[in-house]
Amino acid sequence: xxxxxxxxxxxxxxxxxxxxxxxxxxxxxxxxxxxxxxxxxxxxxxxxxxxxxxxxxxxxxxxxxxxxxxxxxxxxxxxxxxxxxxxxxxxxxxxxxxxxxxxxxxxxxxxxxxxxxxxxxxxxxxxxxxxxxxxxxxxxxxxxxxxxxxxxxxxxxxxxxxxxxxxxxxxxxxxxxxxxxxxxxxxxxxxxxxxxxxxxxxxxxxxxxxxxxxxxxxxxxxxxxxxxxxxxxxxxxxxxxxxxxxxxxxxxxxxxxxxxxxxxxxxxxxxxxxxxxxxxxxxxxxxxx
Length: 289
What we know:
Blueprint: H1 4-21, E1 29-34, E2 39-44, H2 55-69, E3 74-78, E4 84-86, H3 91-98, H4 104-119, E5 124-128, E6 131-133, H5 135-142, E7 145-149, E8 153-155, H6 166-175, H7 179-188, E9 192-193, H8 194-199, E10 205-207, H9 212-224, H10 228-242, H11 247-262, H12 265-276
Parallel strand pairs: 2-3, 3-5, 4-6, 5-7, 6-8, 7-10
Antiparallel strand pairs: 1-2, 8-9
């Protein structure tokens, strides 16, 4: 049996996660359907916070995806014409949770979301108008098809803030055919353009920004013209072919890396600087918290 102290710690941990996992009564995503409810659009709708993949946002996304999988033929993930598709995890949330030894829960939930998108029985299309960064880029890379506006950009900039994008790298390095390009992105934190992303396999098609929604809907309608079980079995075996290694295990290892990274004092300096909007000063020491 658990000791009283262990039970108190367990309940405290649950309360912490519940606080972060709960959004307001208004969902952080908007859901709409078209084409006789066969096409489901899930719109990330927290522009004030650059559509961060907070615990609450990931929960709302997961809920919307699960609720619409069986009734839909295609799911489109979009942020409409917002300048940021998603800026990735909430660094403020991670900074707070790391001090409570609860940060792994965020990466575990993120892994569940990414694998759900990958293993969904219907195709998922990412429609990217603006910037997809860090875990936002990871979400895009996890989709089956990516349609990007000509001014879209993609980055994994965590290294700039002291938190290397280890978990986003799992999906990004799998999607980008040039491993040297993904390494360049990860080590410098600099973005690539939609054109570069298309040339190296991250993006399926680039269109003018005014044509983005129209082109995405056209692709979705083409998919809807085909047999649902045929598409489902095709996706199942495409994923089996692509995932030569154990993707879940890759994410487990990457999560360990993210948690280890968060325990570095330099990481805490970086996150604090990001929150305060100041330039980080690195110690370059292996000191941990």
